[in-house]
Amino acid sequence: MDKADPQFITKFVEEKYFEDTKAGRIKFGTLKEYREYEGDVEARLGDSQEGICTEVVRGPIVNKTFKFGIIDARNITIDPRTTPVRSTLTYNAFIFCATTGNYDQQVHINIQSKNPTLTHYVVFDLMRFQKPIFNLFNHCPFKVEIYGGNVFYQPPEIFYDARNLSSDIDPSRDMGKALERQEMALFAKSPRFSYEKEYRICAVPGWEKAKIIKPVFTKGFSKDIQNEFASAVIGSGSLKL
Fold this sequence. Notes:
The chain is α+β, with helices and mostly antiparallel strands and 241 residues long. The protein folds into two domains: 1-51 and 91-155 and 190-241, no CATH class; 52-90 and 156-186, no CATH class.
């Protein structure tokens, strides 16, 4: 979470989840879950590209040993005008999605036009919402890193210029690029979703644990955690078009 965070976030929900959300019974889904669902899933549109980042190396690449993702080639020459090298990395994490800022009726209309079931909303004070997130994941049997931020709407791709890389290139092991890849995978979405104005919170486990994580419901935890989430609610309502 950083200083650019909004003061409030708005969660649009179906009517059947409205009372639960106000009462602090929150769900953290997973990127894998949303990636695999092709239609609407639990009051949001599914996106098959959730948590995926593509690395693209543009050349010229001439007579080089090339290690890149799953690619391991020797003495390779590539014409970048026709054949850039691409490697796709897929991430998984716990995720909570909302809309940045206080309730905005026009944003609600835009979202409801895509998903008519989203008739209700709950507004949270973000700073007060953050504390129970850490308390919730302190119960996790393995370590997670928690990040929050506004989604940026651009294709989740990172580009490299091969002329700036060494003769033995393995950009997937570059730590600076590793952080950029993670941010791109977690917080970049296709421009077609820009109407959502999304703010998201991600709890990211290590690679091995990421393979097995399942959605987390605060309903299964103590009332104290649920009450902490509920205390962050500053407004709620509905709009039926």
